[in-house]
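Sharing a chain and its predicted structure for anyone who wants a worked example. Both blocks are below, sequence first, tokens second.
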Amino acid sequence: MKIVEFVGPELIVAQLTAKDKIGVVSELATHLAAHVTGVDRDVLAKVLLDRERLASTAIGEGVAIPHGKLDAVGKLVACIGRAPQGVDFDSMDGRPTYLFFVLVAPENSTGVHLKALARISRLFKDPEFRTRLMRAKDGPEMFKVIADEDAKY
């Protein structure tokens, strides 16, 4: 499974402006809804925040993977955001979160959803990869970093 199969350069926000968890989720839900037909930003934000209430999706090392399921998507879709200033996202390591990978799957896609989460998690564990994403000048360059890394596997 390749990440570039479910995220494109138009689904990357290189400069998030939100300063807190709810703001980041709302900003990314708005961006994804603007680029994926049939997705309502308020419904998506609620799904993602409901998941966050169960346990934070911030896995540490500056990374969070907010995720959920939504009938409105016909296939796996994702949106990536970067907050250079860092955001308190209730991370497991107690540190700020800088990189956000929103993953949305159709309601009936448990296997694909879990496979994608594992792939994203593995990729974002690499400190060199995270550094390259943080140093990329814009969304298209961030996408290139992801595509280059994706091509290795």
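Comments welcome. The chain is about 40% helix and 20% strand.
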